[in-house]
Amino acid sequence: MDKSLPRLTERLLGSYRHIGGINNIEVTNVPSKRAIGAICEDLLQILFPGFHDEDPVLSSELADITQGRIASLGSRLEIEIRKALHSRFASTTGGCPHELAHEIFTAFLEQVPAVREVLRTDVEAAYEGDPAAGSFEEIIVSYPFLEAIAVQRLAHVLYRRRLPLIPRMMTEWAHGRTGIDIHPGAQIGTHFFIDHGTGVVIGETCVIGDWVKLYHGVTLGAKSFQKDDSGKIVKGTQRHPRVGDRVTIYPNSTVLGGDTFIGSGTTIGGNVFLMQSVPEDSLVYYEETQLKIVPKRRAPAPSSSAVAAAEDDDYVHSYEI
After folding, report:
1. Is residue 299 in some structural domain?
2. pLDDT tens digits, 38-62
3. Based on the domain organization, do 111 and 140 belong to the same domain?
4. Which CATH number does the domain housing residue 281 bear?
5. Extended beta strands in the chain, E state
6. Is 185 among the domain residues?
7. For 14, left (φ over 0), alpha (ψ -120 to 50), or beta?
8. pTM of the entire structure?
9. Is residue 157 located within the same domain as residue 223?
10. Other CB atoms closer than 10 Å to residue 175's CB: what's the count?
């Protein structure tokens, strides 16, 4: 290995010289995935004090603990914000002003109480919508959707400030932990609940109303992509569905299209593929798929000697296990 090390190193250096677009050399670092993950962990502690802590959080200590968390979070998140903003400012100012990073962080933190208010409604929706939910505490510590939507709601605040990279990194961190993929650009109302959650995909331009309930495997995606004269995809257009209030979408259903609107009060059954709008208070399902339950073919009754032999065999094998 020692003799081949210079040759292998030169081959990689040659790759760096000739294959562009995936190098990040001689420029300011992009935000750190590891740092963003740690920041998301700390944000969950701030959102749900006492639920993401190993040690008890006492009321008498809450002020000092919270102030310390804000200070620690600020010093680290501002560094990542400066990295994210560098590409926007490099061509004009040579770098990102520290003042702007601090301003974005401060404005972000000022929104956290409002985010907590909405998350409270999400917990309520889960409790009301899932008969297996025994308490708010159970939902907060064990329901993956709550972690996914908590991070997404915070990331959406930064997304609205047009902060590059970090909002998407935050939701991808949550996606990796929960299996729920919600773009930070999605606009989601109050009392939102995803039951089970695995495999849910919600696109960037989705607009979702209040009291919406999704099940696992639901996709709210794009039907097609508008292209410019040169054939390149046009960014920023409305590509994903809009969903009204009090809508329920059952498992593994797919709703596509920026011009698709699901009217309030609608229920979409499982395994539906939908690319058109639906009026209010509709029930959407596949009629041609019918469930049948028929009696099994009965085998001839065994003889009494066969029954006795089978019982003896079961007795023996029950003790062999």
Report:
1. no
2. 999 999 999 998 777 777 777 888 8
3. yes
4. 2.160.10.10
5. 181-182, 187-188, 193-195, 201-202, 207-208, 213-215, 219-221, 242-243, 248-249, 254-256, 261-262, 267-268, 273-274, 283-284
6. no
7. alpha
8. 0.82
9. no
10. 19
